[in-house]
Amino acid sequence: IKMAGDSRFPDVDSDGSEKSEEMEIVVNVGGVRQVFYGDNLNQYPETRLAELVNCLSGGYDSIFSLCDDYDPGKREFYFDRDPDAFKCIIDVYYFGEIHMKKGICPICFKNEMEFWKVDLKFLDDCCKAHLSEKKEELEEIARRVQLILDDLGVDASESRWKRCQKCIWKFLEKPESSYPARVIAVLSFLFILISSVVMCVGTIPDLQVVDAEGNRMEHPTLDSIETACIGWFTMEYVLRLISSPNKLHFALSFMNIVDVLAILPFYVSLTLTHLGAKLMELSNVQQAVQALRIMRIARIFKLARHSSGLQTLTYALKRSFKELGLLLMYLAVGIFVFSALGYTMEQSHPETLFKSIPQSFWWAIITMTTVGYGDIYPKTTLGKLNAAISFLCGVIAIALPIHPIINNFVRYYNKQRVLETAAKHELELMELNSAEGKATGSRNELEDLSREGKEGPFYSSRIKVSHSDTFIHLLSEEKHYRTRLQSCK
User: Which family, according to UniProt (predicted)?
Assistant: First the structure.
């Protein structure tokens, strides 16, 4: 503290209060010295720096409750904190808002703001979005770790049926849990491929047979393979439904609805074939069976359950609805404009192929997408010029939204890999911390995690002893600030 009075403590007026407006507070944060004036700090009296203005009258106990060290000779307050984050935080005293610098961990920055007692409302919206994204990632890591702990934990108080349910669920839903589970996942994948191939091969006329009434039908061998595949799918779905912890959520899940759509047509067509003839004409039964057989193409979507690439693609498309909407809007406007122009320009030709504007839509679609089947084409000079402009505009309209869609795919794919690696690393840390503990320690940690999960994704106190540079500090209640800040530099 630089003052004109006593060398150790600032001057005090007649009322016993400090002349805080005229004070110069010298703060040394991680080796970086900063000088502040009391009038600036007192704008936010609840912050830690503002409390330094009035702490000297309370003696050394008051001083060391706010800082790590104090040098009366140099009159400086010392803090073992991150200087880069501190430079951002002090902006609140001059500009009324805070921005995070690039390269600073958002969670560590949040902890720094809590230490300096600066409210998060001063953080700008752009930085709040970054912080929210990081929180979601850490919550996802905590969720994955908890799921793994659920699989590893064995509760002796559970009934034998409950334990059996968990084993079946892990066996069918988590191929990485054991070698037999991987074998089952591979078999399921092969059954999906075989069923899809049989569905396609069954439509080849040379492989079909003719029944007594002269109608073509699938070969009995292919029909037997189809029946075996459906039997596998049915058994798999029933076992997963019985062992699922939340059956309502299981039944309403998108992938499980796809499973039902892949299985149901077989049984409905079988019912119609044997019983439907008594209720309706045979021709109507055959038409209904053929329509249901088309629904078998839904089973190809079952591959998404075993392919992380398809899941990533689905998520990327889901996050790219705005870009896809822009793409469709560009194409729709172009199709309408160029089809109308093409119809108008081609009317002067006696052999025109543009009979109406709605019919010209097909020409505009295949031209703007550069497919060009050639079944409809312009014959006049102006029509050809319109066609050239239309496919050039189509290339531009399609190319513009593609880059954001690719970025969404790459970002989500990389994010999933990082989350998987982080979850494995957290489990390794937990194993190291519990290596000297008893066998029941893992279950106790799981119970602590479950209790604290109601308020947030926090780990139990036994897991927080790690000082790894990649330790997930959001999941810890204790404040190992310096160690974690060093990892973010």
Answer: Belongs to the potassium channel family. F (TC 1.A.1.2) subfamily. Kv5.1/KCNF1 sub-subfamily.
Tokens representing 63 are 């001083």
| Whether pLDDT at 458 is above 50 | no
Quick one: three-class SS letters along the chain?
Answer: CECCCCCCCCCECCCCCECHHHCEEEEEECCEEEEEEHHHHCCCCCCHHHHHHCCHHHHHHHHHCCCCEEECCCCEEEECCCHHHHHHHCCHHHHCCECCCCCCCHHHHHHHHHHCCCCHHHECHHHHHHHHHHHHHHHHHHHHHHHHHHHHCCCCCCCHHHHHHHHHHHHHHCHHHCHHHHHHHHHHHHHHHHHHHHHHHCCCHHHCEECCCCCEECCHHHHHHHHHHHHHHHHHHHHHHHHCCCHHHHHHCHHHHHHHHHHHHHHHHHHHHHHHHHCCCHHHHHHHHHHHHHHHHHHHHHHHHCCHHHHHHHHHHHHCHHHHHHHHHHHHHHHHHHHHHHHHHHCCCCCCCCCCHHHHHHHHHHHHCCCCCCCCCCCCHHHHHHHHHHHHHHHHHHHHHHHHHHHHHHHHHHHHHHHHHHHHHHHHHHHHHCCCCCCCHHHHHHHHHHHHCCCCCCCCHHHCCCCCCCCCHHHCCCCCHHHHHHHCC
Confidence of residue 64 (pLDDT cuts 50, 70, 90): confident
Residue, of 399 and 23, whose pLDDT is higher: 399
Evaluate if residue 383 carries a pLDDT over 80. yes
Tell me which CATH code domain 163-306 carries. Answer: 1.20.120
CA pair distance 358, 335, nearest whole angstrom: 10
Q: What is the pLDDT of residues 173-188, one digit of tens each?
A: 777 777 888 888 888 8
The residue that leads in pLDDT, 361 or 409, is 361
Indicate the CATH number for domain 24-147.
3.30.710.10
Q: Which residues pair with 28 in a beta bridge?
A: 33, 78
What are the tens digits of pLDDT across the range 187-216?
888 888 888 888 888 888 888 887 776 777
Look at the pTM and tell me if it is higher than 0.70.
Answer: no
Q: How far apart are CA 487 and CA 489, in angstroms?
A: 6
Least confident stretch, 60-64, 239-243, 255-259, 413-417: 413-417
Where do the domains of the chain lie? 24-147, 163-306, 311-431
What kind of architecture, by CATH, is found in domain 311-431?
A: Orthogonal Bundle (1.10)
Higher pLDDT pick, 385 / 7? 385
